[in-house]
Every structure is written in C-alpha cells, then in structure tokens.
Amino acid sequence: MILMACYFLDKKYKETLEYCNKLLESDELEEFEKAVVYHKRAICHLVDGQFEESEKDVKNGLACDKEFSDLYIIQGELFLSEGKMIEAESSFRRAESFSMEKAETIHQAAITYMRYEHFDEAASTYLWMEKEYPEEVKQFYGYIAFCHYRRRDKENLFKYLIRCCIYTPESLTNPIFIEKD
Questions:
Q1: Lower Cβ count inside 10 Å, N or C end of the chain?
Q2: Nearby residues of 162 by Cβ (< 8 Å), 6 or more positions away
Q3: Residue 91: which H helix or E strand, with range?
C-alpha cells in the first residue's frame, strides 16, 4: 500500500492503478483497506476521464465501507460531471456527515463545485460552512475570496480578502492568487 500511496502523491496515476489492481487481487486486505484502494483507483480513473470506471470503484469502495467520506466526494464529482446537481449535493452532505474533519470535507465539496465552474454553489457551500464551523472556515478565506472573484462579486471578494489577510496571510501565496504569464 505504501508504494501505491507514494505513486498517488506523485500523481503517477498509471503506476498507482497498477498497484491498486495488485492489491485488490490479493486476499490480504481488510474491508476498510479495500475502500482506500478503491478510492485511489476511482481518482485515477476520474483524472483519466474514465468516469464509468471511477463510478464502479466508488460503488465497490462504498460496499466495503459505507462511511468512507472521501468516496462520497468522488461520487459527488461524478454527479457534477453528469450535471446532476441535486445528487451531487446529496453526496457532498453524506461525505460531511461521515467525515472526522467536517470543514475540510465541505471545502473539498466547494473546490469540486469550482472545478466544474459552479461558483454560486461553491459560495453557498462556503456560506454554510461559515455558519456551521465559524472557527475552521478562517483557513479557507482565500478560497472563498477567489470564489467571489469568479462570481464577479466585488463586495464579498474584498470582504474575504481582508479576512484572509487578517487570519491567514500566508495563504496569499496560494497559486490561485499568483497570476500566470
């Protein structure tokens, strides 16, 4: 599993898939470990545009561990890729309900919305996070500002940029704030 994780962190998805397949062929994994492997494989397939394969991995992973929140994030992304907004939101809420790190999971949902250019939904997700987890949301003010920038909402853009400068000025070095040539 260590090699699979290393290849995954290096974004070497072909090699990750090879190790995932080897691990799933063995009979030595516990159910929760299989869920982890299916999660990594689902991401590799998603990155490669193999949505059906990714969906199969999500289903298999959830059959191994119905409370694996990261699989629900992937499931939500698959729904977004199909334009199924209600199902995506439902998956993101399930992810949050099972997560140990609630604010981080909500952030992942918002980032997923932004990746598919659903900035209004991302803003709503962050607003909900701000109400539910007011202390944890501070670390995401930079992302929230970016979301409002993409929405062309200057008032909220400046509001969250100022909060970002106050609470997490180090986050201003995030690549989302660096202009590309």
A1: C
A2: none
A3: helix 85-98
**28: phi then psi, degrees, rounded to nearest 5:** -100, 0
Residues 25/49, Cβ–Cβ less than 8 Å: no
Tell me the pLDDT band of 4, cut-offs 50, 70 and 90: confident
Q: What is the distance between the alpha carbons of residues 162 and 34, in angstroms, rounded to a whole number?
A: 44
Decide: 7 and 19 in contact? Cβ < 8 Å.
Answer: yes
* 166, two tokens: 């106050």
In this structure, what token pair is assigned to residue 47? 């990155």
In tens, the pLDDT along 33-84 reads 999 999 999 999 999 999 999 999 999 999 999 999 999 999 999 999 999 9
**pTM of the prediction?**
0.90
Please state at what angle helix 13-25 crosses helix 2-9, rounded to 10 degrees: 160
Inter-helix orientation angle 31-47/51-64, to 10°: 170
pLDDT digits (tens, 9 = 90+) for 147-174: 999 999 999 999 999 999 999 988 877 6
Length of the chain: 181
Does residue 91 carry a pLDDT above 90? yes
